Amino acid sequence: MRFWRGLKRGVIRLIPACALLALSFYFWSNTHVGDAAHDPLALRQQMLDQRHAELAVTEAERAVWQRRVAALRTQSLDRDLLDERVRAMLNWSGPNDLIFYYPPGQKLF
User: Fold this and answer.
1) What is the domain extent for residue 10?
2) Domain shared by 77 and 42, yes or no
3) pTM
4) Residues 22, 30: Cα–Cα separation, whole Å
5) 3-state SS class at 10
6) Domain membership flag for residue 3
7) Is residue 63 part of a domain?
8) Residue 13 and residue 6 in contact, taking contact as beta carbons nearer than 8 Å
9) What is the pLDDT of residues 17-53, one digit of tens each?
10) What is the largest CA-CA distance in the chain?
11) Do 30 and 58 share a structural domain?
């Protein structure tokens, strides 16, 4: 009888310790396996590096477009170059222009 009573008391005393141990194991396992683990951190860092690379490409493309738009503003527009480019694109010529014909296999540009 005494044995069973002592065993019962020992088990009752161990329950809080086991519960605390189980709770500690739960938090420890989540730090190594769960969402806040080291592997997802490395994955997030890799995704961040990819986003930085995409940002650099996008910023370079934006700079190109800004230069193109700035060249079209009236303050920086060279009318002679614009006229030359329009004539080249539309195959127009003025009355005082000299026209040089090239053979079909030879191109100027």
Assistant:
1) 1-36
2) yes
3) 0.42
4) 12
5) helix
6) yes
7) yes
8) no
9) 999 999 999 988 877 776 655 667 778 889 999 999 9
10) 126
11) no
